[in-house]
Structures are given as structure tokens and as C-alpha cells.
Amino acid sequence: MSAADAALVRIRGLRKSFGAQPVLDGVDLDVRRGEVAVLLGPSGAGKSTLLRSVNHLERPDAGFVEVGGEIIGYRHQGGRLHELGHRAITRQRARVGMVFQQFNLFPHLTVVENIIEAPVAVHRVPRKRATAGALGLLERVGLGGRGSDYPRQLSGGQQQRVAIARALAMEPELLLFDEPTSALDPELVGEVLAVMKDLADTGMTMIVVTHEIGFAREVADTVVFLDGGRIIETGPPAEVLDRPRHERSRAFLAAVL
Fold first, then answer.
1. Predicted confidence (pLDDT) per residue in 108-145, tens digit
2. Among 175, 228, 248, 251, which is least packed, fewest CB within 10 Å?
3. pTM of the model
4. Which residue, among 38, 7, 67, has the nearest Cα to 207 in the 3D structure?
5. Minimal CA–CA distance to 142: which of 152, 127, 150, 154?
6. CA 9 – CA 202 distance, rounded (Å)
7. Which residues pair with 70 in a beta bridge?
């Protein structure tokens, strides 16, 4: 198997419950390096919990997530998995960027300061070099010249593009998107999806939770349909979106298309 075909992300037997309610029920999933995987399904299907498990924002009850051959959040010792300390988990998370539904920008920091904070604090990148990198990333997401603005001076779509630049500043192997356009006014959705499409075109590995079926059809390599905490269908967009095999997939797509 070539490096290009190898799975960057391996998820095996992932289970998670909140109280008595199972949210993930034995999920297995591979995402190849350079692949865009889009997670679809009804609310409560477990999509966001699965995504948050990839960088250990949610601790699984069973199973594991592996990124680049390294189990996230744990180490093997004595035939068992032992949870890592905060510093080691932070180091692992630096390889996995995440863009949330809400932009989570620091309102008291400028756009550039928001972007450089993690590279300077976590990777000890010199401030001058981090700033130059941030300005380049702002150009990349179509916000050149806005580095000295504060988040309140930007539209929601612009703030989300800053959040994408902030995630890219850590030079991650993998980007996670948790419904990145659902908090935006409809006319601002396209500008964020365009940036995500450009990232996909450059070969960035991405796992995206979204209800934007058009984006899934155009950009995804693999569509993963979840229901009741299980993957019930997975395959290329033309297969899952146009010829869904499972009754739940057909019902969901009939409602949103």
C-alpha cells in the first residue's frame, strides 16, 4: 500500500454514551491521507461526538482513534490503554486542527493575534515569523489587509475564515469541521465553503460534519451516513447521495434535497 492510500485516521470500535444514552455504538472508519470525508445524518446521530472524539475533546468509553499511527489520548502499557496527561494530549491535538460551529475567536485580540497565539504558545514559533505566516494565511482565505481588525469588525463568514486560518497556522495533518456554516446567514455560507473547497483541492485531509449536500456532492471523496450512533452507509457521493441503499439514508436525503 502506498503512502497516499494509507489511512491517516483509523477509528475502531468507538463507543460513547452520555448517561444511559448511547451516542456512538461501535463506529469503525478509515480516512485516507488527502481524503475529504463528509459526515451526514439526522440530529443526534452522533456526528459531532464522533468528530470531537478524533482529537479527544470527547473521551470514548471503548475503542480508539489513531491519527498517523498514533493513538489519540492514550498510550499502550502492559497490554492496556492508559490516558495521556494534558501536555501530551495538547501536543497530539496540534496535529489536528478543528473549526467549530461558533467561531470562538478571542474578542480582545486582533485577527493576527488570534491566529498566532497557538503557534507561539504551543510550538514556540518566533512572533515575527508567526505573524508573517498569519498574514499569508489571511491572503489564502481572502482576508488580506484585515489582520489588524478585531473580530467584532468582521462578518460571521469572515470570522469563520479567520478561524480556518487559525487552524491552518498549526500546520495540521488533519482538519475537522463541525458544521462550520450552520451559524452563518445564508448569503455568507458560500464564502466559507469556497475556502474549504480550495483546501480540499490542495490535498488537505478533512472530516466535515455538515448539512450542505451540495458541498458533499462536489468536494467529498467519501460520504459517511450515521444514524443512531452507527455508520449505516458509506461510499462515494454519487453512490450514497444518488443511490442510497438504506431506508434511513433515503428518508433523510428526501427531506433535505
1. 999 999 999 999 998 899 999 999 999 999 999 999 99
2. 251
3. 0.94
4. 38
5. 154
6. 18
7. 67
